[in-house]
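To the wet lab folks,

You asked to see what we're planning to order before we commit. Fair enough. Below is the target structure as tokens, and below that is the sequence we designed to fit it. If anything looks off to you, flag it before the synthesis order goes out.
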């Protein structure tokens, strides 16, 4: 069986991968939901300011615009641009270090290989092409969350909840900005491999997906 037709291995979605998901949900998504429950009112702590803090009806259009990014992003957005091709810009931003700690990241994959030495995320041209699509889907999702996080932080600042605004903004960087950068870094590497043809061990081109 040729390498290009070798069985693909689905990235593990158990064990160590649960930890990054839990951190993301407990550290940012949970507080994001709690923020809006506080703004809404019934669950607002007594020491918070009273009154109606809900945004105007026009804010609904902002939320719709954020969610619409999933469908409205043009194909050109996902294109690998010249400055991205070498990946150096992403390495300098610490994306490779960040890759160690994400679901299906370097650490989780190395741990998986302790049980299955043949485990590879990418085993050939077809799986590499499939993985490119996965990076685009993941990037779409994180862009939607990024936009919602920005809108939420902006509203928190506008009502004087500066601590919430700072917290949501910092969390947005780690939960959404860095995963977006990781998807683009991954795609730049895979596109380079696909363009020149997979030769040798394609696992050398494998870069984990940030969920």
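Sequence we intend to order:
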């Amino acid at each position: 069986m040729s390498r290009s037709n070798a069985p693909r291995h689905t990235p593990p979605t158990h064990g160590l991968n649960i930890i990054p998901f839990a951190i993301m949900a407990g550290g940012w998504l949970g507080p994001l939901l709690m923020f809006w429950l506080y703004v809404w009112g019934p669950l607002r702590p007594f020491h918070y300011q009273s009154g109606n803090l809900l945004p105007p009806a026009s804010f609904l259009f902002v939320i719709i615009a954020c969610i619409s990014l999933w469908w409205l992003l043009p194909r050109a957005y996902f294109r690998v641009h010249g400055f991205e091709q070498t990946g150096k810009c992403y390495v300098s931003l610490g994306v490779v270090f960040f890759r160690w700690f994400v679901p299906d990241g370097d650490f989780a994959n190395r741990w998986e290989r302790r049980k299955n030495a043949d485990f590879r995320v990418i085993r050939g041209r077809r799986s590499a092409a499939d993985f490119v699509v996965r990076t685009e889907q993941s990037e779409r999702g994180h862009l939607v969350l990024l936009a919602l996080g920005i809108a939420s932080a902006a509203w928190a600042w506008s009502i004087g909840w500066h601590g919430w605004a700072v917290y949501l903004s910092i969390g947005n960087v780690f939960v959404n900005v860095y995963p977006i950068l990781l998807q683009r870094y991954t795609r730049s590497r895979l596109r380079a491999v696909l363009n020149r043809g997979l030769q040798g061990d394609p696992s050398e081109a494998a870069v984990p997906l940030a969920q």
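Structural context that might help your review: The chain has one domain: 13-38+59-69+76-205. The radius of gyration is 20 Å.

Thanks,
Computational group
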